[in-house]
Amino acid sequence: MLRRELSDIIQHLGDPRILMLTVVDVEPSKDLKNAKVFVSALGDEKEQQAALAALQQAMGFVRREVAKRVSLRQVPEFSLVYDRTTERAARVGALLNQVKAQTDG
């Protein structure tokens, strides 16, 4: 539920740097006071860092929006974590395709 709401809020922020961000996962703590928000972004390293920094600046607003949308006793404090899983998967896929092309040709 948090992942879905965070994704929706982030996509509607209107900041072009943030539009390429995707919320991959949200891991709330057992007491729901904190939550890690795993995000990934398209673009080069500089663009990814800019997107993450822009989102970090907007997290106060994002948290208030979550409070409006989700019925929780306490809205967690969100910490952003950059998730490189998608990048690694793409790299592994490309390497596998290279190996296949070499063995076929």
Structure description:
The protein has 105 residues and is an alpha+beta fold. It has a single domain (2-104), classed as 2-Layer Sandwich (GMP Synthetase, Chain A, domain 3), CATH 3.30.300. 52% of the residues lie in helices and 21% in strands. It has helices at residues 2-11, 45-69, 85-104, and strands at 21-28, 34-41, 77-82. Strand 2, helix 2 (45-69) and strand 3 (77-82) form a beta-alpha-beta unit. Helix 1 packs across helix 2. The longest helix is centred in the middle third of the chain and has 25 residues, at 45-69. The mean pLDDT is 88.
Draw up the topology in text:
Blueprint lengths: L1 H10 L9 E8 L5 E8 L3 H25 L7 E6 L2 H20 L1
Parallel strand pairs: 2-3
Antiparallel strand pairs: 1-2
Helix pairs in contact: 1-2
Class by alpha and beta content:
alpha+beta
Q: How many domains make up the coordinates? A: 1
Q: What is the H/E string? A: HEEHEH
Strand order of the largest sheet: 1-2-3
Helix content range:
40-55%
Low-confidence stretches: none
- For the record, the CATH architecture stands as 2-Layer Sandwich
CATH superfamily: K homology (KH) domain
Could you state the oligomeric state of the chains shown? Answer: single chain
- Which sheet architecture does the biggest sheet show? 3 strands, mixed
Number of strands: 3
- Write the CATH fold name: GMP Synthetase, Chain A, domain 3
- Inertia-based shape: elongated
Strand content: 15-25%
Work out the helix count.
3
Cα distance, first to last residue? 48 Å
The CATH class name reads Alpha Beta
Mean pLDDT, all residues: 88
Taking Cα atoms only, what radius of gyration do you get, to the nearest Å? 17 Å
